[in-house]
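**User:** Hello, beginner here. Are you able to go through the protein record under this note? It all follows right here:
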Amino acid sequence: MSTTTHSTGIGVQQVAGRIGAEISGVDLREELDDTTVAEIWKAVLTHRVVFFRGQQLSHAEHIAFGRRFGDLTRRPGKKHGVAPEGFPEILTVDPKADVERYGKNFEEHFRRKWVSALAGWHSDLTQAVNPPNASILRAERTPAFGGDTQWTNTVAAYEGLSRPLRDLVDSLQAEHAFFNAVHLRYSDERDRAILKGYCENPEVAVHPVVRVHPETGEKALFVSPGSTTRIVGFSEVESRHVLDLLFQHLTSAEYTARFRWEPGSIAFWDNRSTCHFAPTDFAHLDVDRVMHRVTVLGEPAVGPDGFTSELVAGEPMQAW
C-alpha cells in the first residue's frame, strides 16, 4: 500500500489494489481551505472512494462539507426516505426507522426476492437522467461486527474487458429503473403496493452502457445489477446474457474494496466510476446501524459515441 502526504498536511493511504484510500490529517468540522478541498477531490477522482475516521460531524457540518463539492440533491417528496428534522438534504439509512415507514422486515422481504446474489450492487439513483456525481455517507451508530460496505472500480472493470467486448459495449445504451433485480409477485399484497406505486409514478432513464468521465476522460461501465433493466434494442434473452456477463465481471473481487465502519467514519465516493453493495449480514441481529448520506448533483452521462442520457419517466434531480 502506498501513502502520500500533501503540502496541506493530509495523508492519503491506498487500501486496496484498484480502489479505495483512507485520508488522515484533516478535521472535516473545520472550514477547509480551497487547496485542501481540491486535494480531497483529487483523491476521490484517483481512488474512486475515500474513507475518513473519527469525524464527529453534525448534520449541518455534513451538509456544509458536501456543498464544498457542488450543489446537493435528493429525491423529491416522500420518495426521499427518512430525513432528520430540519435537514431535508440528508437521507438517513436506518432499518429501524424504516419499520415505521414501510412496515416490519421491509428490507428482508425484498432481499428474499432478489433474483441474483449480486442484486444489491448499484450506483446511486441512476434511475434519474442526471444521477448524483458523488455521495458522502457518515456513520452515526454501527454494530460491533457486520455491516461492512463494498465498492467496485467500474473504470478498472471496463479496462479489464477484452477489446472486442469493449468495442461492443461502447455503442450500447441501457434502461435503468427501481426494483430491477427483485421478483415482485402479483399474488403478494406488499409487492402489489410497490408495483402500483412505481406504475403510477415511474422513474426511468436510458444511459450509455459506458460513460466517459467528464473530469478525467476515463471510460467506466455504467450498469449495475440493482438498477439496469435491459439493453436497448436487444431481445430480453440477449440483454440478460450480456448484462449478466457485465455484472459478474464488474463485481469481481479484484476490482473491489471493503470498508469496516465505526461511529464517525465517512465514505466519499465518485458515483460515476463506482458501484457499491450495502451490507446484508446484520438484519437478523438486534443492533443499531444508523447512517446519513448527502449526494452531489450530477449531470447526464455521455457515452464514447456521444449518446447522452435520456429521460423516459420522472423528473431530473434538482439542486437543494
Q: What stands out?
A: The longest helix spans residues 236-250. Helices lie at 34-47, 59-67, 95-102, 106-111, 154-159, 163-169, 189-200, 236-250.
